[in-house]
Write a structure and sequence with these properties.
Elements: E1 4-16, E2 27-39, E3 43-47, H1 54-61, E4 69-74, E5 77-78, H2 84-93, E6 94-97, H3 101-104, H4 111-121, H5 128-141, H6 158-170, E7 176-180, H7 188-205, E8 208-213, H8 216-222, E9 225-230, E10 233-239, H9 240-245, H10 250-257, H11 298-302, E11 308-310, E12 314-316, H12 321-326, H13 331-366
Parallel strand pairs: 3-8, 3-9, 6-7, 7-8
Antiparallel strand pairs: 1-2, 1-4, 4-5, 9-10, 10-12, 11-12
Helix pairs in contact: 4-5, 4-6, 5-6, 6-7, 7-13, 8-13
Bound molecules: adenosine-5'-diphosphate, iron/sulfur cluster and magnesium ion (MG).
Length: 367
């Protein structure tokens, strides 16, 4: 097994709860007692419905926000309270790519300034001409023309903007990148291009990727291992094939039923889960999923299920996962959704093959 690059240990983040005149603001229990380890060089995915705490967890891992409780370990060192020069070094080694590249790119800056800023900040260029050269290299690396450095973000398409965001993330020569829904805002064919870019950069630069996403087709295509989140907690963690072939947790099973169709606009035609997502200001007692779980029993509302480690590097947090499995709840539903999933996967693979063929042709042309 490869060494761990990043570990979350009992990470908890609560927002709000501040004292006001006569009351407190509501406390949002965004992330609760989350533990896992990311292995060097893998693509580790964090998946779950909107509002379940994925982005908060991603920001905690990168120390962009401080944890309420728990620790973050990076390459064996406890970074939870790092400040100053140490934190700056961390900022260089761990980067984030956001869902909405337009919102995350300053509209008043040229692409050259946007990408050049981290180059200068981390002291990776001695003067302006070295900086320009580095920006040109980074643009080329993400498949854009160096001349684009003179232009502004609004002059680009969504896919190109995401490439600019990736170039900026690469500027400090990071070891780990967190992608917070990096392709969710893009059309499916553009998604495939950006996914291919991320995968080839990962291979070329030896990166570790943490992918935060709600789209299971993207997850299935890209990741090695997957953590499934529900209302701030990890309910299941498994290698990607095991998770899709035999989902053990009732919530994972429900999520797989909700796999999007071939176009992002067809997503969620019928509700995958009964009932509303409970408010994270008042998470249900015991198992947080008990208000929506078709298998819930009285014990579920009283006792929080702890993660149980299983063979094959899996873990699941459900009191009754064995009963659920014996009742045959996992397998049949996968068969019923796999046609839709396969359609998307086939498209990603097709684009991947085309991209590889292109690389070979241009490599030959350059010889
Ligand atoms: N800065 C914040 N202040 C208060 N609540 C927040 C803040 N950031 C996120 N939240 C809340 O925390 C919960 C988890 O949010 P988020 O991590 O963005 O979920 P996801 O990325 O899975 O959609 C949500 O209820 C959200 O409203
Ligand atoms: S612990 Fe109970 S409520 Fe929670 S997922 Fe398992 S069966 Fe459902
Ligand atoms: Mg989010």
């Amino acid at each position: 097994m490869k060494p761990n690059i990043l570990e979350a240990s009992a990470l908890t983040k609560r927002f709000g709860g501040e004292r006001q005149m006569f009351a407190r603001t509501p406390t949002v229990h965004a992330v609760n007692d989350v533990s896992f380890a990311v292995q060097t060089g893998e693509t580790f995915a964090i998946v779950g419905e909107s509002g379940c705490g994925k982005s908060t967890l991603g920001r905690l891992l990168l120390r962009l926000i401080d944890a309420t409780q728990g620790r973050v370990i990076y390459q064996g060192e406890d970074i939870t309270h790092w400040q100053g020069a140490k934190l700056r070094r961390l900022r260089r080694e761990m980067q984030i790519i956001f869902q909405d590249p337009f919102a995350s790119l300053n509209p008043g800056m040229t692409v050259g300034q946007i990408i050049g800023e981290p180059v200068a900040f981390h002291g990776l260029a001695r003067n302006a001409s070295e900086r320009r050269e580095r920006v040109a290299q980074l643009l080329t690396k993400v498949g854009l023309q160096p001349a684009y450095a003179e232009r502004y973000p609004h002059e680009f398409s969504g896919g190109q903007r995401q490439r600019i965001g990736i170039a900026r993330a690469l500027a400090g020569e990071p070891k780990l990148i967190v992608g917070d829904e990096p392709v969710s805002a893009l059309d499916v064919s553009v998604q495939a291009q950006v996914i291919n870019l991320l995968e080839s950069l990962k291979a070329e630069l030896g990166l570790t990727l943490v992918m935060v996403a709600h789209d299971l087709a993207v997850i299935r295509h890209m990741s090695d291992r997957v953590a499934v989140m529900y209302l701030g907690e990890i309910v299941e963690l498994a290698p990607v094939d095991a998770l899709f072939d035999t989902p053990l947790h009732p919530y994972t099973q429900a999520l797989l039923r909700a796999i999007p169709a071939s176009s992002p606009h067809e997503r969620r035609t019928k509700p995958a889960l009964q009932g509303d997502l409970p408010s994270p200001t008042a998470p249900p007692s015991g198992c947080r999923f008990h208000t929506r779980c078709p298998h819930a029993k009285p014990r579920c509302s009283q006792e929080r299920p702890l993660a149980e480690a299983l063979p094959g590097g899996r873990q699941v947090a459900c009191h009754f996962w064995r009963d659920v499995q014996n009742a045959g709840s996992g397998a049949p539903l996968v068969a019923s959704v796999s046609a839709k999933l396969n359609e998307r996967l086939a498209l990603y693979r097709e684009k991947q093959a085309a991209a590889m063929a292109n690389t070979h042709t241009s490599a030959n042309a350059n010889r």
